[in-house]
Amino acid sequence: MSGSVLGDLFKISTWGESHGKGLGVVIDGCPAGLELNEEDIQSDLDRRKPGQSPFTTPRKEGDKVEILSGVFKAKTTGTPISLIIYNKNQRSKDYTKLKDVYRPGHSDYSYDLKYGFRDYRGSGRASGRETAARVAAGAVARKVLAELGVKIRAYTASIGPVKIDPENTKIETRLDNFLYMPDQKAAKKAEKYLTELMEDNNSSGGTIECRVENIPEGLGEPVFDKSDALLARAIMSIGAVKGVEIGSGFKAAEMTGHQHNDFYQYDEDQEISKLTNNAGGTLGGITDGSEIVLRAAVKATPSIEKTQSTVNKAGENIELNIHGRHDPVIVPRAVVVVEAMTALTLVDLLLKQMTTRLEYIKKVF
Amino acid sequence: MSGSVLGDLFKISTWGESHGKGLGVVIDGCPAGLELNEEDIQSDLDRRKPGQSPFTTPRKEGDKVEILSGVFKAKTTGTPISLIIYNKNQRSKDYTKLKDVYRPGHSDYSYDLKYGFRDYRGSGRASGRETAARVAAGAVARKVLAELGVKIRAYTASIGPVKIDPENTKIETRLDNFLYMPDQKAAKKAEKYLTELMEDNNSSGGTIECRVENIPEGLGEPVFDKSDALLARAIMSIGAVKGVEIGSGFKAAEMTGHQHNDFYQYDEDQEISKLTNNAGGTLGGITDGSEIVLRAAVKATPSIEKTQSTVNKAGENIELNIHGRHDPVIVPRAVVVVEAMTALTLVDLLLKQMTTRLEYIKKVF
Amino acid sequence: MSGSVLGDLFKISTWGESHGKGLGVVIDGCPAGLELNEEDIQSDLDRRKPGQSPFTTPRKEGDKVEILSGVFKAKTTGTPISLIIYNKNQRSKDYTKLKDVYRPGHSDYSYDLKYGFRDYRGSGRASGRETAARVAAGAVARKVLAELGVKIRAYTASIGPVKIDPENTKIETRLDNFLYMPDQKAAKKAEKYLTELMEDNNSSGGTIECRVENIPEGLGEPVFDKSDALLARAIMSIGAVKGVEIGSGFKAAEMTGHQHNDFYQYDEDQEISKLTNNAGGTLGGITDGSEIVLRAAVKATPSIEKTQSTVNKAGENIELNIHGRHDPVIVPRAVVVVEAMTALTLVDLLLKQMTTRLEYIKKVF
Amino acid sequence: MSGSVLGDLFKISTWGESHGKGLGVVIDGCPAGLELNEEDIQSDLDRRKPGQSPFTTPRKEGDKVEILSGVFKAKTTGTPISLIIYNKNQRSKDYTKLKDVYRPGHSDYSYDLKYGFRDYRGSGRASGRETAARVAAGAVARKVLAELGVKIRAYTASIGPVKIDPENTKIETRLDNFLYMPDQKAAKKAEKYLTELMEDNNSSGGTIECRVENIPEGLGEPVFDKSDALLARAIMSIGAVKGVEIGSGFKAAEMTGHQHNDFYQYDEDQEISKLTNNAGGTLGGITDGSEIVLRAAVKATPSIEKTQSTVNKAGENIELNIHGRHDPVIVPRAVVVVEAMTALTLVDLLLKQMTTRLEYIKKVF
């Protein structure tokens, strides 16, 4: 139980290091009868792939996914789906000089404390590259959800001090710039901000917002498996994320009950609707059919060329400049990872909801 | 799997409704040999108990815990520990008039969507009262951790717009006021703010901060079971929490890599230390021995007497004033719940860490 | 994770010692909408209860079950169901003289090896009394299955050398004698055999057979969660069981492929049927709708008054005669426990089957 | 949750079909610091491999295992170990003619009932070939156990009516004949028996016995996770196994308490020993340091050329002769699978035992 397994019913088991032979994931519990091919998965992986903009590492990673099992005649069979992405273009040599140095903001030191030693090549298992397996699994989860009309869309909501303006935001335009911001003006400003940071060999944090439309009602379980709790865990498990909020989030702390409560009313069709969505789509941890809205705070890329103070294993305080091919900002590439984690969480809750009512059982059997 | 089970090795299974016969928890996996008696648990429960200040509901709940199993001659035996708290002083009648109304900010509507019907007495399983079982289990977890010197302390960091000032904050004084704020000046202001809100039949949100000192190194597992991810899930599972952050949290989004990275240095004893703690005690999800710092945003009590618009099951839009005995702010009573959830998460990771190195196995066998 | 939790979706967490305050179980994941009251559970408990025949301990245990949560207006709500049975009529004093002695055939020694000490009162957690909680949970599982017409019936198939004869066996008559044998002639012989053994202060083993009719098709998961594998685990987890077999069982080892294979044919209604049922209702671990047939071998009660050689903690070899109130045979009281474990295993697989096809999901949502 | 995940702490997730691209397993939770290379695993796989005797299918399967992750500089890192075995020499065409036929003794029919359709090439996921992934994972588990001196040895105990004779049995000689019997005389007889069966186009069942020496004390958890219960599940999950017994097994049913109880005595070194081992190494489900002894009944290979009656999907009763390359007996190739399942079960319990005592925690931290 080294922490690489997620989900109870749609259970994924990921593996792989950034400079090993490859990485992959086994999905145990995908329902039978889903149409699935490699292109379905590849399109999500391509959004995570580096080398596509001035604001990601120029490192080229092919990231071609291969389905090894669990699909027969283009449909899932209900048995484990094994996905593999072979590593290409690794330069392990770059890292041997870092093997005795603890890079600030990386997990070099904490891994050594945990295991006594570590695979130091490109952060090994702690590399952001590990998220490729999440995205691959997430693409399958998303396909299951799409069968019910669920739509999951994340985007960059801020880069450093530059935030999207709700007035200028059109979610459909989020892929129209390198930073995946749905506000083109903000994107321009953010690009300028990043360019300056890069000249200073520095990097930037940012935030990601994710919206889920058309989610079935009733997802999430009372107490510990609330939909927002499991989403928070899933999103916070992405390496660089330092905070997660749902709906009103941290603003809720400054609001009164009367301000925060979403009032109900019957709409014209005599359907129940809410006047606001401070809850962010979940009440008591259970979805009510309104849009799920969540946000994640992402820290800046820790690998920077700018001089930092640190230590080596020889007992010395040293100055460190990390050369190499690093993203000046993680946020845009993490957007699809947030979508994947959201999809993986929701599909598991969807399957659980199948088992919560006797009347559902009688419908099926 | 209705979501009331938490933990892999220190596994708790909670049960109970606010207006049923009682509530409780079964702990499966507490190590044998721990000294434990009911007073150890009661003292934490007493901090959650209402009726102790002008800022909590005057409702009296005895909340006396009883140990039913798993302890022999004042020591845990390694077998399940069953804890029970019988309900007293319930007034179910208060709720029958609410059974056909969807209270804003409550889970009445989402429970009906999930299950088709609900136990409407005092929110049933969705009641904040459910957290008593968490606090009881958390007290046991905390005792295990205390054997290794771990200290978990949470406190109110803000009430509505009133925040504690780091300059005036002394963590030792956090229990010296009704609001559990470690800044006595801020506490005064917050009490005034609350008093005014209460006159308006309104309620307030706030934030809770939690600090863990002397945590063993190496806790947390790569990828999905990162210590911060599991903490986020645990904290977000508390009913009223809308956001969670670790270390720098949402501020990280505005910082550069050079600002955010915690630089290492050797201290006088040639021990590795960090100049800052933006990471909040965990890197790559694994504890490095520095203090864990996390924060939660808590929404305002949804039950307010101030008039709200909502709907009933008869298909009518109605005006609602919720009378009864409700907390004007949840935050102070939730402080010990945050501590409990933190303890439960960390003790599970502690037990997991026991199994991660071959050399540990050889030490024991 | 001390081993007292069973099931993934219909998850039970049991607790309690034979001479503690009581024992119980929390069921997390029972579907909402099931009619349930205490009588439903009590009737199964009464079959396990001692003191009802010359062949069980004359010890009286009231074994009254109480539902503490999860049921509202006589229906399950989908939230945890907590069941409690308070202990009555314990005589802990009987056991203090045994606290430094390792009783042969009991787990006194292995518990000390595991935990370093043990609750020695009446075997503590290792007591057969622990199965009362299983029976209580099993009664709920059985009620869910009964909604689909599933019928689970176990009975005594042999006591020592006395076996039921298929020619004389009528399953409906299984409760017509103290030994729960469906062959009344065999029952007579077995009673005689037991009476003689009791005079010699000795005890007997036996076998239990369990049949499940009308089980839905498709239950069981490939590879590790085969229905027969999970049934074997569930049945073998009953303290005194030393062997489990399905269908042809150990006889299969002596059969040829042509003898063992169950041939298919279309019956008059053009439904597929099998000419034999050597498989015992499960092929590849998946139910095919035919009757599930399994058998368990149960060892003799280890507590006997007849002189045994053993050791004490003082380092001495001693002679031991265990006085007290013990069953001369465990088998009849274990019959309902086998039914309970079967029901718990099957209901979990039933809930899992709900999630295995995309078309099922579309039926529900 | 399609049933291909096993273990709580040493968690394996297997995948693959007999005629897909390959099969494999991800191990999540192998302790860090174990020396591991591909040869360690290959030697176990080679024992399962067909084509090595007149009594296995002449089908050649290379079964070369490759380690894809989790090992760095020849040591396990504590992160997931991914193992892959690419399929070679598949002849899917052989199976297209069987796609509309339900083969007796196979899971064709039950898979169709479960999923609505199936991968019919060589039984797909239900193929015995699936066990290659178990053997690979088992080899790693076995290596962990070997670090503590644990020795797991299984062998063929009977083929059809031919049983090994304890008088002639030397466990060290078990690999000296094609059938893996530790009694060379019996092996000769069994070979003769099999040769005759093969001429009749038939197949045989048999039994496997497994012995575990030097097992640490205290493994196994009370109630549901008893060592014997988990072993029974693990062994019964092997496709062709119809029964499992521990120690005295089914003989226990005919024994008296005085016969069955293993009496304790102090040996010359004042160590506690047992005069017999009817318990089979586990009391109350917890190992006591004596040898674990278990037996499995294995049914005959269902694929036989001898004429059988069955049905096709077109609604017809047909005669079936299964041509192709099939083992006349599964038992010898299953011997290493039984060892693997035993190792996987015990290593998981070993890791759990690490967490059961407070004093162990204090030894490590």
Automatic annotation (TrEMBL), chains A, B, C, D:
Q: Which GO terms describe its cellular component?
A: cytosol
> Binding of NADP(+): at which residues?
48
* CC cofactor: FMNH2
Q: Is the keyword Amino-acid biosynthesis in the record? A: yes
List the keywords (alphabetical).
Amino-acid biosynthesis, Aromatic amino acid biosynthesis, FAD, Flavoprotein, FMN, Lyase, NADP
**Cofactor: binding details:** Reduced FMN (FMNH(2)).
Sorted alphabetically, which SUPFAM superfamilies does this protein's record hold? Chorismate synthase, AroC
Task: List, alphabetically, the CDD domains matched.
Answer: Chorismate_synthase
Which major enzyme category is it? Answer: lyase
Q: Which GO terms describe its biological process?
A: amino acid biosynthetic process; aromatic amino acid family biosynthetic process; chorismate biosynthetic process
> Does the keyword NADP feature in the UniProt annotation?
yes
Q: Please give the function described in this protein's UniProt entry.
A: This reaction introduces a second double bond into the aromatic ring system.
Describe its partners and assembly state. Homotetramer.
Give the protein family.
Answer: Belongs to the chorismate synthase family.
- Please report the name of this protein according to its UniProt entry: Chorismate synthase
Q: What is the lineage of its organism?
A: Bacteria, Bacillati, Bacillota, Clostridia, Halanaerobiales
Protein encoded by which gene? aroC
